[in-house]
Amino acid sequence: MRNYIYLVAVSACLLVSCKNEQVAEDSRTVFNYNEKHGITSLDPAAASSFESIGAVNQLFNGLVQMDDELNVIPSIAKRFSMSKDGLTYTFNLRTDVYFHDNVVFEGGKGRKVVAKDFVFSFNRLYDSRVSSAMSLLTNIDRSEKTNYKGFAAINDSTFEIYLAEPFSAFLNILTMKYFSVVPMEAVDEYKQDFRRNPVGTGPFVFKMWEEGTRLNMLKNPNYFEKDEKGNRLPYLDAVSISFVKDRETGFMELLNGKFDMLSGADALNINEVLDKSGTLRDTYAKKFYLQKATFLKTDYVGILVDEKIDIVKNSPLKLKAIRQAINYAFDREKMIKYLRNGVGVTATAGFIPKGLKAYDPSKVKGYSYDPDKVRQLLIEAGYPNGKGLPEITLHTTEDYKEQMEFIQSQLAENNIKLKISVDKFSVLRQAVAACEYNMFRKNWVCDYADEENFMSMFYSKNFAPVGFNFFHYKNPAFDALFEKALVEKDMASKIAMYQQMDQMVIDDAPIVPLYYDQVIRLVNHNIKGLTSNPMNLLNLKTVTKQK
Questions:
Q1: Residue 22 confidence (pLDDT) above 60
Q2: pLDDT given at position 269
Q3: Is there a domain that residue 164 lies in?
Q4: Rg of the chain over CA atoms, in angstroms?
Q5: I need a surface site. Which of 4, 76, 194, 337 has the fewest CB within 10 A?
Q6: CB-based contact 341:278 (threshold 8 Å)
Q7: Structure pTM?
Q8: How buried is 108 (Cβ within 10 angstroms: 0-12 exposed, 13-18 middle, 19+ buried)?
Q9: Quick one: 544 exposed, middle or buried, by C-beta within 10 A (0-12, 13-18, 19+)?
Q10: Strands 418-423 and 77-82
Q11: Are 113 and 181 in contact (CB under 8 A)?
Q12: How far apart are CA 140 and CA 378, in angstroms?
């Protein structure tokens, strides 16, 4: 009998204990979202994909960061300055920033970040086995003048970077996650496996990553940033990222409450969720709210124009009039309305998207649907009514097949025959970089919020495969203006130069701009404080989740 009473008492205690643990578990606020394309690395030096950047942003910080209005503001550097000649950048570091607790540090306690940590972190970027950021470092002066270093730790709290020549976009570049600070101890310990054992300074601390399934991060109790009331960020207890590839499955998980947010038009069935005006349907508005905002991303059709390449020599696309005719031959507004349910802004100005200062449809005149212009240009090119005009092949991926078929149909109505070739993404990417395709469908997502990032695609010294000038576009007047803008300190003059460059590109038509994309997120009503920005960078440090 005594044994029976003892077992009952123990069982009761265990039940109470389990219940208390369950309450503790339920009281934690965990932000759950899906990243259908997965991530490849948590090392900021390798943060080249949009998906990886989103995760890395929760774990790491750099010298500076960008706010939601695209202003460069302090992060680990509490203040920064530039010398009068534009060649030296000085960063005064905070003294209250610590790396995450980890076994690589003495006693497992994260140590304070000092300037030499940035020297180590920046030097890693020069190793092509570690990072693809090499092209971003070309302006850093590693000559005899700087003792072949390019940057230096003046003392524990002062870090300097030296440029070979002024570069107006440099501070914007430093907001990229590549330039996050990492500890030497962790890189030395984990070596190549640092990609899945990240140690940073960010608002969340790495907990677990089961590749292809789930990534978990916990609140960093020692994070240095605070809100306006002095409360330490972040508010959430944890972040959990799933990697469900199937769109329909991911959407059902959102409806069932497993996910708090889905992001991106490709993650949502927009025909189901949005009406043709781009408004959230009432069925979903009861449980979710829609975030739709400017995104620094231009979707386009690219055209190889280098007549030294055989596929261009024998193509009608070598003629500017044909390229312009294609630009006039389809209705971008209809494409946005019926194929994207109002998500996106028609690209009837330049290549520079809405959201950047140089975007101004009154200054840069693009193309809109105009069959009369098409007829005139076909005559000018020597193909009246399309007679004798060879069929043109356009390469795309399955994701954009429907859009390209819409363009194909409209071009056919205007006597331009288009053949659609659907490739795997990896095949298309490699072939475009190797200049094997005459016409291709791609997009350009801004790496950093400066017009230079878009216009550099048309600079002749950036010819693919070394650079991203996939078109092999070469215009001496454009090049001269581009080089002048790089060192221009006056913002108004710089913007005017980029508008002139943008108009040159539009007039020469090595591209067919389609639309300027938008950030689109479907978010549960119990999520508050989730902001959006034109870089579509996911910031979770100010998010709260209501029970």
A1: no
A2: 83
A3: yes
A4: 26
A5: 4
A6: yes
A7: 0.87
A8: exposed
A9: middle
A10: unpaired
A11: yes
A12: 48
> Residue 369 — very low, low, confident or very high, per pLDDT cuts 50/70/90?
very high
Q: Which residue, among 396, 273, 443, has the nearest Cα to 343 in the 3D structure?
A: 273
Q: Tokens 């002062």 belong to which residue?
A: 158
CB atoms within 10 A of CB 485: 22
Domain end, chosen from 217, 236, 255, is at 236
What is the domain extent for residue 62?
Answer: 33-236
Q: What per-residue confidence (pLDDT) applies to 26?
A: 63
For 171, the 3-state DSSP assignment is helix
List phi, psi (to 5°) of 46. -110, 15
Separation CA 267–CA 273 (nearest Å): 11
How many helices (DSSP H) and strands (DSSP E) are in the chain?
A: 17, 19
104: domain CATH number? 3.90.76.10
Identify the CA nearest to 69 among candidates 541, 447, 532, 492: 532
Q: What is the biggest distance separating any 2 CA atoms in the chain, rounded to whole angstroms?
A: 105
Are the beta carbons of 526 and 363 closer than 8 angstroms? no
Phi then psi for residue 41, to 5 deg, are -160, 150
305 & 163 share domain: no
Say yes or no: 217 and 117 in one domain.
Answer: yes
Could you tell me if 459 and 471 are in contact, meaning their C-beta atoms sit under 8 angstroms apart? no
Residue with tokens 């946005």: 336
Contact call for residues 62 and 174 (beta carbons, < 8 A): yes
Q: Which two tokens stand for residue 253?
A: 């998980």
For residue range 372-410, what is the model confidence (pLDDT) as tens digits? 999 999 999 999 999 999 999 999 999 899 999 999 999
Residue 492, domain member (yes or no) = yes
Please, which residues have CB within 8 angstroms of residue 435's CB and are 6 or more apart in sequence?
Answer: 304, 306, 309, 464, 465, 470, 472
* Coarse DSSP helix, strand, coil percentages of the chain, rounded to the nearest 5 percent: 35, 20, 40
What's the CA gap between 86 and 488, in Å, rounded? 10
Q: Are residues 212 and 307 in the same domain?
A: no
Query: Minimal CA–CA distance to 89: which of 45, 146, 51?
Result: 146
Owner of token pair 């399934």: 213
Domain count, the chain: 2
Q: Are residues 218 and 70 in the same domain?
A: yes
Residues 6+ apart with CB under 8 A from 9: none
- 166 CB-near residues (< 8 Å, 6+ apart): 85, 86, 87, 486, 487, 489
The neighbouring-strand residues paired with 30 are 238
Residues 224 and 303 in one domain: no
Q: Are 453 and 447 in contact (CB under 8 A)?
A: yes
Please tell me the predicted confidence (pLDDT) of residue 19: 44
Angle value at C-alpha 529, between 28 and 345, nearest 5 degrees: 135
Phi, psi (degrees; rounded to nearest 5) at 30: -120, 125
Tokens read off for 67? 């706010």
263 within a domain of the structure (yes/no):
no
